[in-house]
Amino acid sequence: MKYAQLVIGPAGSGKSSYCRAMQQHCQTTKRSVHVVNLDPAADDLVYDVSFDIRELIGLDDVAEELELGPNGGLIFCMEYFMENIEWFQNKIGDYEDDYLFIDCPGQIELYRQLLEKMGYRMCSLYLLDCNFIGDGSKFISGILSSLSAMLQLELPHINLLTKVDLLESETKRNKESDDSANDNETKGNEKEKEQENEEDEEEALLDLSHLDEYFDPDITELINKVNASTSRKYFQMTKAIGDLIQCYNMVSFLPFSCRHVQLIENILRHCDHCMQFGEDAEPKDPVDWDNASSNNKDDTLDDDAQSNQDKTGMANVLEHMMRSNGNDIDFTGSHGYDGDNPRA
Ligand SMILES: Nc1nc2c(ncn2[C@@H]2O[C@H](COP(=O)(O)OP(=O)(O)OP(=O)(O)O)[C@@H](O)[C@H]2O)c(=O)[nH]1
Question: Is any atom of ligand 1 closer than 6 Å to the C-beta of 165?
Answer without folding.
Answer: yes
